[in-house]
Write a structure and sequence with these properties.
Blueprint lengths: L6 H16 L3 H7 L4 E10 L5 E12 L5 E2 L2 E4 L4 H17 L6 E7 L7 H15 L8 E2 L8 H15 L23 H16 L8 E5 L3 H14 L3 E7 L2 E4 L6 H11 L10 E3 L1 H5 L5 E4 L18 E3 L8 H9 L3 E3 L1 H4 L2 H15 L5 H26 L3 H20 L3
Parallel strand pairs: 3-6, 4-5, 7-8, 7-11, 11-12, 12-13
Antiparallel strand pairs: 1-2, 2-5, 8-9, 9-10
Helix pairs in contact: 1-3, 1-14, 3-14, 4-5, 6-7, 6-12, 6-13, 12-13, 13-14
The structure holds glutamic acid.
Length: 418
């Protein structure tokens, strides 16, 4: 049978397995396997050539039993209601696994940002906010950046929101530039949080991260910072490969992460980087025998087709949904330690939560404070999941679901919804 690749069907299947193991009653399963609310918008945008183009946008509020909905907005050509639903479900489990008082949401626009001018992006950002604003608010639902939505896009959105409500209102959206009430440390928080979990995992497996080889698949925000922070935070490491949507590069003796990031920013791709041994494909990168692999791009890159060839010791999933359920079983059988997405990449939303707290009382923390608090959250979440993985003898993703779903189900129960 062909493998299921619809992200929302995958998210539901993952949830169903956890619900079964937790023995949740039927009504609890039903409420937790669907979003509570979903919105579909049309967004007319005046294009630079004078025409009007209508974009399709989404916002899904998956579950707010533990706190207001929270989650990013993704701009991508393949965005659909089902990808947004899946990402909103994963946000719910993500906020729960790191134990922050927020629920899960996600938004998106089907578009190709690489084909939009800056002016068109600004009008699209403001247009999305105009249709979505009435459903948002820090006590209701609060967006943030995701794939292809930059701090500048977030800046236009907060400005539009504040024009609509007629006052300053920083906590409604996170990932803002520092000048507009953003938090210190939000920029690299997703990768930094993942690096903290890798540090803890390395202790469990007696791997010295300073000597470990590593490879990064995907070179957006999370991938670029994973490349540099592995070295900075873990005291070394050998970066043997990186890739972006155009392909990858490999160098056996290791490459300088800062230098590749600089190259990427100046040349828009890593594949022309001159100091590598050779070019490789994204698929080849995933199959390298490295100590730590960072899948940091999009969904469904590790499937039943290539899972048996994955040779890393630790896979730290900075992307959302990179591994299918069939692949999970194969990786587990082959002894690959997966730090699952909604645990590994929870650093972003954790610092988003800190940003909301700071914005609400209008007092801002130092970078040192943010990083320390992030470390505490990520470290205790990793150990909660690892302990569950050992105690119940289940793979790490199931363990993460058991920890996260139980907390949301307890909140649903206490509210008397079920
Ligand atoms: N989009 C990010 C994620 O998938 C961050 C969400 C947020 O900060 O609210 O976790």
């Amino acid at each position: 049978m062909a493998e299921e690749l619809n992200p929302f069907k995958i998210a539901q299947a993952q949830f169903d397995e956890a619900a079964e193991k937790l023995g949740l009653e039927p009504a609890m399963r039903e409420i937790l396997r669907w979003p509570r609310r979903e919105y579909k918008f049309t967004i007319p945008v005046k294009m630079d050539d004078g025409s009007t183009k209508v974009f399709h946008g989404y916002r899904v509020q998956y579950n707010d039993a533990r706190g207001p909905n929270k989650g990013g907005i993704r701009w991508h050509p393949d965005e659909t209601m089902d990808t947004v639903r899946a990402l909103a479900a994963w946000m719910t489990w993500k906020c729960s696994v790191v134990d922050i008082p927020l629920g899960g949401g996600k938004g998106g626009v089907t578009c190709n940002p690489k084909e939009l001018s800056n002016g068109e992006k600004e009008r699209l950002a403001r247009g999305w906010m105009r249709v979505a604003a009435r459903e948002l608010g820090e006590h209701r639902d609060s967006p943030a950046p995701d794939v292809y939505t930059t701090p500048q896009i977030i800046a236009w959105m907060i400005d539009e929101y504040e024009v609509i409500v007629g006052r300053n209102h920083p906590a409604v959206i996170t990932g803002k530039p520092i000048e507009l009430g953003g938090s210190q440390g939000r920029g690299d928080a997703t990768a930094r949080g993942g690096i903290f979990t890798v540090r803890e995992a390395c202790k469990k497996f007696n791997i010295d991260p300073a000597k470990a080889t590593y490879a990064v698949q995907g070179f957006g925000n999370a991938g670029q910072f994973a490349a540099t922070l592995h070295k900075e935070v873990l005291g070394g490491g050998i970066l043997v490969a990186v890739s972006d949507s155009r392909g990858g590069i490999y160098c056996e003796k290791g490459m300088d992460p800062q230098d590749i990031v600089k190259w990427k920013l100046e040349n828009r791709t890593v594949i022309t980087y001159p100091k590598a041994d050779k070019k490789i494909s994204n698929e080849e990168l995933l199959e390298l025998p490295v100590d730590v692999l960072y899948p940091a791009a999009l969904e469904n890159v590790i499937t039943q087709k290539n899972a048996a060839n994955i040779k890393c010791k630790i896979s730290c999933e900075l992307a959302n949904g990179p591994t299918t359920p069939e692949a999970d079983l194969i990786l587990h059988k082959n002894g690959v330690h997966v730090i699952p997405d909604f645990l590994a990449n929870a650093g972003g939303v954790t610092v988003s939560y800190f940003e909301q707290v700071q914005g609400t009382y209008n007092y801002y923390w130092t970078l040192e404070d943010v990083r320390k608090q992030l470390d505490e959250k990520m470290t205790s979440a990793y150990h909660a999941v690892y302990d569950m993985h050992k105690e119940k003898n289940v793979h790490m993703r199931v363990a993460a679901y058991l920890v996260a779903v139980k907390r949301v189900a307890d909140a649903v129960k206490l509210r008397g919804w079920v």
